[in-house]
Write a structure and sequence with these properties.
Layout: H1 5-14, E1 20-24, H2 31-46, E2 50-55, E3 73-74, H3 82-89, E4 92-96, H4 107-111, E5 118-123, E6 134-137, H5 144-156, H6 163-175, H7 187-198, H8 203-211, H9 216-229, E7 231-233, E8 238-243, H10 245-250, E9 273-279, E10 284-290, H11 296-304, E11 307-308, E12 312-317, H12 321-337
Parallel strand pairs: 1-2, 1-4, 2-3, 4-5, 5-6, 8-9
Antiparallel strand pairs: 7-8, 9-10, 10-12, 11-12
Helix pairs in contact: 2-5, 2-6, 5-6, 6-7, 6-8
Bound molecules: guanosine-5'-monophosphate and manganese (II) ion.
Residues 32, 97, 124, 143-144, 176 line the site of manganese (II) ion.
Length: 341
């Protein structure tokens, strides 16, 4: 994958003078959202810019170890208005790891208060359709962290990647590729991993922090969901699971605890599509995964007001859980009847 030289030069020109910068990422931030924001913030600060990272809501507790994560402003808990102030004085607003302002929830409403800031997208989702002054959009990139690593390399040289940046970037590259196993993983991804590894990061430690640092409640909840809530239908090729708020409370649920559950049905032979529905106060969060040619990005767009990537997408439902599951099964039938499943 080759980054466009004209875009790199446009970015270089934007960053020539010290600027006031805000970095935003999406609601329910994951390792890629947080890792890319923190690494991008660190390099920009080193180059003399003033940077504030803002996330719409809190990241999962198992990302607490990420270097400098405590400096991130969580908009939902921001009683002092730090986010609003930073957004007001920003010369540049970077949007990382998302492509629709709707993925910022309420944080999206206050962006328009600043009409003078340049808006720059750095992202790997399909079909970005918002107005940006500069769009660094590569849907074929396996993660936004990989894109940020390439940008840093092109702008300032690979040697400017610090150990902290490398740790943050590695988290997103690892989590967004299912531990470097998805088809989006290219030889160049491993070249970049090698550059990150040279900084002295401990890959086993990062792995333990991200994948083996959960609560007991999560382990028990996982067992419950797979055993009691997983329904397999459509000839064994589609699975859905759901969690109500009440069920989550019973297992001392913490944000992020159900992350990754949706992948598990795909470990079953012949499974093509897996869906997870989690109840929130005003809506049901939909999480979709698929194998190979099955396109859940299209499925999420069509039926659940969402989108994402071909094999990993999400959306929302505003119906009851019961109706949402019925709707899902109906949509699967329709999708299959069109030869899309
Ligand atoms: P997850 O299932 O991990 O929450 O999300 C998987 C992918 O689906 C994310 O990388 C994101 O691209 C996309 N996604 C999740 N929720 C939404 C949503 O509400 N709207 C859109 N457009 N994409 C989503
Ligand atoms: Mn991502």
């Amino acid at each position: 994958m080759q980054l466009s030289t004209s875009k790199i030069e446009a970015l270089r020109a934007l960053l020539e003078e010290p600027k006031s910068i805000v970095i935003l990422s999406h609601t329910n931030p994951d390792g890629d959202a947080v890792g890319s924001s923190l690494a991008w913030a660190e390099i920009l600060r080193k180059k003399g810019h003033e940077v504030t990272c803002i996330l719409p809501n809190r990241y999962p507790y198992y990302l607490d170890f990420m270097p400098e994560i405590s400096e991130v402003v969580i908009f939902k808990n921001d009683d002092k208005g730090v986010a609003r102030e930073a957004l007001k004085r920003a010369d540049i607003i970077f949007c990382l790891d998302f492509h629709l302002l709707s993925r910022l929830d309420q944080l999206g409403d206050i962006i328009d208060e600043n009409q003078h800031a340049k808006r720059v997208l750095i992202d790997h989702h399909l079909d970005p359709n918002e107005d940006f002054d500069l769009m660094i959009s590569y849907p074929e990139a396996s993660s936004t962290c990989y894109l940020v690593a390439l940008l840093i390399e092109r702008l300032y040289g690979a040697e400017s990647i610090s150990r902290n940046m490398a740790e943050n970037l590695f988290v997103g590259m690892m989590t967004d590729t299912g531990n470097f196993s998805f088809s989006s993983v290219t030889p160049d991804v491993f070249r970049m991993v090698s550059i990150l590894a040279e900084t002295g990061i401990s890959i086993p430690d990062i792995h333990i922090h991200v994948y083996n640092s959960f609560t007991e409640g999560r382990a028990r909840l996982f067992g419950y969901v797979i055993n009691r809530k997983m329904k397999i239908f459509h000839g064994g090729s589609v699975a859905h699971m759901s969690l109500t708020e009440d069920e989550m409370r019973r297992f001392w649920f913490q944000q992020g605890d159900s992350e990754g559950f949706v992948n598990y049905p795909l470990t079953i032979k012949k499974m093509k599509l897996s869906a997870m529905f989690t109840e929130h106060t005003d809506f049901i969060r939909v999480s979709l995964r698929s194998r190979g040619a099955i396109d859940v990005n299209l499925f999420a767009q069509r039926y659940f007001n969402g989108g994402g990537h071909k094999n990993a997408a999400g959306g929302k439902s505003f119906m009851s859980m019961e109706d949402t599951l019925k709707h899902f099964e109906k949509c699967i039938k329709e999708y299959a009847s069109e030869g899309l499943l």
